[in-house]
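Tutorial, part two.
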Amino acid sequence: CVELGVNGETFIIDAGTGIRELGFDLMKRAAGAPVKGRLFIGHTHWDHIQGFPFFTPLFLPTTQFQIYGMHGTTKSFQDVMAGQMHSTYFPLQLKDLGAKPEFLEMTGPLQAGAVKVTYHFLNHPGITVGYRFEHEGKVVSYISDHEPYGALNPKGEFSDKEDTAIARFVAGSDLLICEAQYTPDEYKMKRGWGHSTFADILDLAQKAEVKRMALFHHDPLHDDAKLDERLADSIALISSRKLAIECFSAKEGQVVEL
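Running the prediction step on this input gives:
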């Protein structure tokens, strides 16, 4: 998960296992006051929601949270989120939480407090969106679980149109939180799985003229040495294109100020 802090307001993107520790930290920072915030789910594959039942603030009646996502193919967003807390899988159901979070489905641009939030559909199995957060001229975009259309169909008119639309969506981002899960060799075996190589995601960043890239959604099979190797290769590719884009590998607990 990713936390954005804007003038004391809390915005969280996705709810993987990291949201458990984030919940403890939010409670510590609140020092007994109600924990308040907004959670945005990009898609409901398990690795993006499995930490949700362990987000401790939701067990407190004083917690105030709005949770945003997309309507499912056959179920509401709330029903999809409740599914993993069915008694077959978890001892408490969604209705048993002390807090009563408000589930809201994204249908267009949203003014969330002082932040404008927009979304764009991504190329990944299932209903998946990326988010763009804007506040006082600063922009953070989040594009996780996305396979550029051009990687699948390099010369297709549809691919060009869709890739250009996503570049416009993240255009001018001060920080682009993006996945680059596969090496080129790994991608050959996993083409069509809905994930990217760095070269493909750099094409997007270059077209969109982003300032910084945080490489995210690391492959579970990649250890720290492999991530360092990937980052070095990524920086070398940026340099070869003579681009002024800062690039780093996102890590747990890392703080980036804009």
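The chain has a mean pLDDT of 95. In part three we will examine how such features are distributed along the chain.
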